[in-house]
Amino acid sequence: MKLRYSPTSPYVRKVTVTAQETGLQARIERVPTVTSDPGSGLAKDNPLGKVPTLILDDGERLYDSPVICEYLDGLHSGAKIVPPAGPARWAALRRQALADGVLDAAVLRLMETRRPAHEQSPAWIAKQKGVVDRCLDALEAEIGRFGDGLTIGHIAVGVALGYLDFRFAAENWRDRRPALARWYDAFARRPSMVASAPREPS
Ligand SMILES: N[C@@H](CCC(=O)N[C@@H](CS)C(=O)NCC(=O)O)C(=O)O
Fold this sequence. Notes:
Radius of gyration: 17 Å
Mean pLDDT: 97
Bound molecules: glutathione
Structural class: alpha+beta
Distance between the termini: 27 Å
Strand order of the largest sheet: 2-1-3-4
Strand content: 5-15%
């Protein structure tokens, strides 16, 4: 299978971490894709024009990151990162939704700041920052219940915090969130997180 990716996308990083944690990395051919380039052919594979997009060997296309991660989870026989049923499943999926929401708000904010100064909306930027702050406070309150296992909730939260460090390093989210900071500092040492750390293409 082939994964359309861009090196700085946190949603792609969720898939990359999932693939490494489930031992599927070698089965995935990575296809660098510039989402803004109409010549990339991305729109044919995913009408949303977004990465990650997974192209299966039978030609089927999968998106977005939650769908791809759950698909990959069905391909291995180890411990599942998407719990199959019960409260553990809903906790993992809700945490993934929370972390993906952090990413959505952070990406919207970043995009807004890249528009010409006179077109930017300070109110919009403040709103997105407020969403991220609220979600981080919610995570601080529940990180003690995350447990030692690995689920898509853990992966999504780890990737979201890594993205804040990557794009908004000057605003230290760790201030006022000591439990979350401790959890992340350990999580970020996983080989899958170290290997997938985002960097701007040279
Ligand atoms: N909900 C999607 C979000 C994917 C997404 O927004 N990807 C960004 C890269 S970080 C993208 O492809 N943006 C290109 C565009 O929107 O034109 C997921 O979880 O995969």
